[in-house]
Amino acid sequence: MQDLLFDFISKYISLTDDEKNAIVSLALFRQVKKGAILLKEGEKSNDGYFVLKGCIRIYYIIDGEEKTTAFYTEMEALTPHCVIQKAPSEYYISCVEDSILLVSDPDMEAEMFSKFPKFETLCRILAEEFLAKQQINFDEFKTSSPEQRYINLLQKRPDLIQRVPQHQLASFLGIKPQSLSRLRARILEKIKG
Amino acid sequence: MQDLLFDFISKYISLTDDEKNAIVSLALFRQVKKGAILLKEGEKSNDGYFVLKGCIRIYYIIDGEEKTTAFYTEMEALTPHCVIQKAPSEYYISCVEDSILLVSDPDMEAEMFSKFPKFETLCRILAEEFLAKQQINFDEFKTSSPEQRYINLLQKRPDLIQRVPQHQLASFLGIKPQSLSRLRARILEKIKG
DNA sequence: TGAATACGTTCACTTAAGTTAAGAAATGAT
DNA sequence: ATCATTTCTTAACTTAAGTGAACGTATTCA
């Protein structure tokens, strides 16, 4: 399991055995069951997550309805807004599947950064890279229709459509579950016709 | 003008005079006229921008139509996707108003980082913070209607509605200019009625 | 200054998403 | 295995966004 992590890191920086050991000694691995809630609205938490295996999601409850806005799968990192802003969380985080996560918090990060400055470089690069990806995603979302967004998702993250319930996908696409059903039927119609 | 920059930085880290001088000696200030194009689709560039004064925007040309997806105003930093990905740009960047920008590139950043590690910390924090903000923005976009998005913008960035043409705002809100006109009329109707 | 272009609004019409409700299918718990 | 709950789909109706076109009003620039 740790190998997955080090393979991932090696794409960005090279680590000595000392550094690997430091990470392992500080890192907290956590197994979580499908449906488990990692963070609730209103709670304060300092935990960030790196998904080694499985899938977690962010959702809001607005007017009593769940609105899923993001999924994180293998080799993706999620630092909740409340950790950065030091404020109560606006959203929930829960497990879509049984998952294995690497849990971090700012204190642990600070310790790593001071011992191994290289590690701060890694975090900076990851943040910059993820920010760039996030912006492209947002741009695509803004400039396309729900139907285009779904077709886009089919191509870019076909796994998500398999592993995630439709009603969660719907709000991820910015629409209602009924509209997603209809839209899927419409696309099938087009392919057949 | 430099004071603006240092006041901003001082919110995150404290700088010695040496460090300030290093920034000034490496930094490139650039005055740009309204309408000037900083980056074109297909171009490769290594320049990142920090807006000291004015407003710049990102837009795509899709099927011959301009689609504006982002605005950057005072004290906001924009590192184009193509700088991170080392690939040709998918979008254009242009000046909405006469602006004063601080231009940076990866080489200059690397030099700063090695001389003053503190500066890498600043960049990491800014990237993390901006990422968190960006995600909240995206979440709000996904979970609200065009009308709600516009009302939201009225409250959060009223300045944008003043300084930016309607048709650019429209695509920023994910709709057509005609729909924005209609939506504004609808809101006025509600206030009157 | 005058012609051309770009911009914002309005209108009629089309298309698709939201809403409400019902029922079928899948899932989970006892 | 059965019952209850959740999830997904379908349908009819409402509402709002997309489309194409026209019109008045800036802006631009030759």
From TrEMBL, chains A, B:
Residue ranges occupied by any Cyclic nucleotide-binding domain in the UniProt entry: 11-59
Tree of life domain: Bacteria
Pfam hit, one: cNMP_binding
A GO molecular-function descriptor: kinase activity
CDD domains: CAP_ED
UniProt-listed InterPro entries: cNMP-bd_dom, cNMP-bd_dom_sf, RmlC-like_jellyroll
Alphabetized UniProt keyword annotations: Kinase, Transferase
SUPFAM superfamilies referenced in this protein's UniProt entry, alphabetically: cAMP-binding domain-like
Gene3D superfamilies named among the record's database cross-references: Jelly Rolls (2.60.120.10)
Protein name, per record: cAMP-binding domain of CRP or a regulatory subunit of cAMP-dependent protein kinases
Organism: Dyadobacter soli
